[in-house]
Amino acid sequence: MSTAVLTWRQFRFERKMFWRNPSAAFFNFTLPFLFLIMIASVFGADRKELDILIPGIAGMSVLGTTFTALTYTFVFNREQGILKRIRGTPMPPIAYFGGVIGSAVANAIVQVALIIVIGHVFYDVSWPHSYFELVLFVVLGVIAFGSLGIAFAHVIPNFDAAAAYVNAVFLPVIFISGVFYSTKSLPLVFKAIAVSLPLKHVIDGLHGAIVSGQGLGDNLTALAVVAGWAVVGLFLTVRYFRWD
Question: What predicted TM-score, i.e. pTM, was given to this entire model?
Fold first, then answer.
């Protein structure tokens, strides 16, 4: 059986496992939409707030469906001995990783698309001005957050501690990176931290693609920062990944 077929089968298996896990479906799909609907309902008449919120929630969705989901997945599979057993089978590692990461990518794409549709239909936010820029920042965000999530999984000692470790990263990052408000209002210390993290730059790129209509040339700094984090994440994943 070819590697492509095995990857496709692993992808289908991951999709079934995802939808059979209510907590994963809730935190990956329902939670961002609850944030969007509740906050947008409060600031529904404020165009400026909506223009910040839609790309912010889209960026948070990319983070949640990749970094958070893959961290949990790899910690659980490592602790249950699943990774070790997979390593001992004839399945090529690339087929396993392709299926798992492909499932996370599918979640990210669907979430971002739904957020854009909801923003346009219910809150009159414009359709994206640049689909190329939108796809580019989503893809780079997936690579950066996904690889960082897999690398971060090896810092977590066991699955019982995973929620504490993940939330200790996820919650501060979304609040400091401008998901719900502009980072311009942050104190200088927090603003400096936000600028050094990839989520703010993913949101800036999505804001340019969806709201402001800025070209890719206006977001080259954001592109470089996200790409740099993607390189760091891939290096850490390759360097420190262990099957057991």
Answer: 0.88
